[in-house]
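=== RUN LOG ===
request id: a7f3
mode: sequence -> structure
chains: 1
length: 215
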Amino acid sequence: MALTDPEAFIRANTVVTAAPLVPEIRLHLACEITPIWQATETWLAERNVEPPFWAFAWPGGRAFARHILDKPDLVAGKRVLDFAAGCGIAAIACVLAGAASVEASEIDPLALAAVALNAAANGVAVTLAADVVGEACRWDLILCGDVCYEAPMTGHIMPWLTAMAATAEVWIADPGRAYLPKSGLQAFASYRIETTLELEDRTVRDVVLYRLAGG
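=== RESULT ===
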């Protein structure tokens, strides 16, 4: 069965709720009572659905959102990209904090649909973008939440992000993933984020916010 109505699929497989640490933002998220929480790879394949990273508020995005909502002057008036946005929690926080414009990029069309629904649920406008790797910089700030979890992904995006950091601020929120670069990062904040054993190997993740040096 092909997935022909992304919004209907998202609504049917999520509930609108707030993620821990960020009560200000409402999101369409999977939980124990939604079918996608217990979905197997076969279930997803039958519906032509990639792993539903968009259905969860991951630690990096939550840390970004909390930091931005608490310190809105960091993004106010800026052009922001939420790169690999997932559910869009960081993008939404930037709009609420007064960013001049906010783009959310994702290579999964279902994730983009989720970001659109989540933005609407919070009464904000977020511009959607697909794969932006390789594009010229048009932003003042690029947020990258939890992007270094696989070697191929990290190897693909880091040269571009490093180039972007020559003209824009690039922040990476990392909860201890294996492929985070060992150099070129300056930590500026940290958050302890509650997680679940269904998604992580522990119930708490320490997320560090880094500023990436330009190349």
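=== NOTES ===
The helical segments are 6-12, 41-46, 59-70, 89-96, 109-121, 151-164.
The mean pLDDT is 92.
=== END ===
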